[in-house]
Write a structure and sequence with these properties.
The complex is a heterodimer. In chain A, a hairpin with a 5-residue loop joins strand 6 and strand 7. By secondary structure, chain A is α+β, with helices and mostly antiparallel strands. Chain A has two domains: 126 residues, 2-Layer Sandwich (HIT family, subunit A); 70 residues, no CATH class. Chain A starts with a helix and ends with a helix. In chain A, the strands form two sheets. Chain A has a five-stranded antiparallel sheet with strand order 1-2-3-5-4, covered by helices on one side. A two-stranded antiparallel sheet of chain A has the order 6-7. Chain A is extended and about 75 Å long. In chain B, 40% of the residues lie in helices and 17% in strands. The longest helix of chain B has 24 residues. Classes of the chains: A alpha+beta, B alpha+beta. At the A-B interface, helix 4, strand 4, helix 5 and helix 7 of A face strand 1, helix 2, strand 4, strand 5 and helix 3 of B.
């Protein structure tokens, strides 16, 4: 089905995303519609041999879900993908007895990105292998210092909300058992659905539990899912304009 | 404090743009482009394979944030995220680092490669070798999650070689 410019203009962003996904060869590889030499696969990502390799064993690692550029990836997925990249790099070093790997991502056409799907290249490297990815110096430390404040301020602003989340995640886990332990020693009769703890005055206080003490595993999972959806939405707002720009290049 | 260039960079606070307990992001002293940033573990480790999983994941998440920041602050059209892992890959400082490099159209940087041709046998062989290594990995990991450090620092010839970067 051929689409005209007008068709594209009338489409909602969701419809365009859907169209991109349908035409994306990497999504087709992930779903098995297009064959590829699969090296690794799990729930979230897949790695295949690149069909135009820089070196023998050159792998492409990508998320199964369609994302155009890396800034769109949720943090958990970024972490997961690069955890896998580490394993693949290690596998390449061992398999080919090599002295190095290059891990390469291009975000945006200016950076050399050719397909609108996040791709992590893992390239086995040998000395004198004819690949030139040297990083020449083109700017100066003085100029860098000038750019620093703006970048730092941005990361601080962005960071306080987004970057520090993982730390908050682990904190409540540590607190909970501590509170339970203290109640048991005093011998207060525990009522179901309440959390007991020693308050500032040293008295035993109780607080109603959010779920009434029920261990709703399914609910918890659902809630967690909802959370991640919300997070995504928030992030999109922050970088939405920017991402639309980059993603738009491929339309 | 240290002989390592990157460890020293992490101490130079006027170059640091972000840091937490695990990783630090600093402006490169020899920038490929204005805004070139290195994201690295605070702990001195040479190659990716030695970086603990949680630190590696964190480092790449931060690299992604830095990349996003560069897009917005510098109004650029792209970023490259490059790891030179090992001397054969061009690594010159024995401290793992993720390069986040701002890109603009026609900036003159050539960060690409020509495709090489290999025979079907060569490709199948490479596929098998890689699959074998990957599938072998999970079991090994379970057994030696604690041993990992010792094996990496100890008798792994390959890693030792990579660590011998000047």
């Amino acid at each position: 089905m051929a689409l005209t410019e007008d068709d594209l203009k009338n489409m909602s962003p969701e419809e365009i995303a859907e169209l991109q996904k349908k035409n994306c060869v990497f999504c087709q590889i992930a779903s098995g519609q297009v064959p590829a030499k699969k090296i690794y696969e799990d729930e979230h990502c897949i790695a295949v041999l690149d069909i135009s390799p820089a070196n023998l064993g050159h792998m492409l690692l990508f998320p199964k879900e369609h994302y155009s550029v890396m800034p769109q990836l949720p943090d958990e997925l970024t972490g997961h993908i690069f955890g896998v990249a580490k394993k693949l790099s290690q596998a390449a070093l061992k398999a080919f007895k090599l002295r190095g790997t290059t891990i390469f991502v291009a975000n945006g056409m200016a950076a050399g990105q050719k397909a609108p799907h996040v791709l992590v290249h893992i390239i086995p490297r040998a000395f004198e292998d004819g690949i030139h990815l040297e990083l020449p110096q083109n700017s100066t430390e003085e100029q860098q210092r000038k750019a620093r404040n703006a970048i730092k301020a941005y990361l601080e602003r962005f960071g306080s909300r987004v970057i520090k989340k993982p730390a908050a995640k682990t904190a409540p886990k540590e607190k909970a058992p501590e509170k339970e332990g203290k109640v048991a020693k005093v011998g207060v009769k525990k009522e179901k659905g309440y959390l007991y703890f020693v308050d500032k005055e040293g008295d035993i206080a109780k607080a109603k539990m959010a779920r009434g003490g029920k261990k709703g595993k399914k609910k918890a999972i659902k809630a967690a899912k909802k959370k991640t959806v919300k997070k995504k939405a928030v992030k999109k707002k922050d970088t939405g304009e920017l991402l639309d720009d980059i993603a738009g290049l491929f339309r | 404090m240290s002989d390592c260039e990157h460890c020293r960079f992490a101490e130079e606070k006027e170059l640091v743009v972000f840091e937490d307990e695990l990783v630090v992001a600093v402006l490169a002293k020899k920038p490929v482009a204005l805004g070139h940033i290195l994201v690295m573990p605070k702990q001195h480790v040479t190659i990716l394979e030695q970086v603990p999983d949680n630190v590696a994941e964190r480092a790449f998440i931060i690299a992604n944030k830095v990349s996003t920041a560069l897009f917005d602050v510098l109004r650029i059209n792209g970023t490259n995220i490059i790891v030179e892992n090992g001397t054969a890959a061009g690594q010159t400082t024995p401290h793992f680092a993720i390069n986040v490099i701002p890109r603009t159209e026609n900036d003159g940087l050539k960060l690409s490669w020509a495709a090489k041709r290999f025979s079907d046998e060569q490709i199948s062989m490479a596929e098998m070798q890689l699959q074998k290594e990957i599938q072998g990995a999970p079991e090994e990991q379970k057994q030696s999650e604690e041993k990992k450090e010792t094996t990496l620092v100890g008798d792994n010839e390959l890693v030792n070689h990579l660590k011998r970067i000047p």
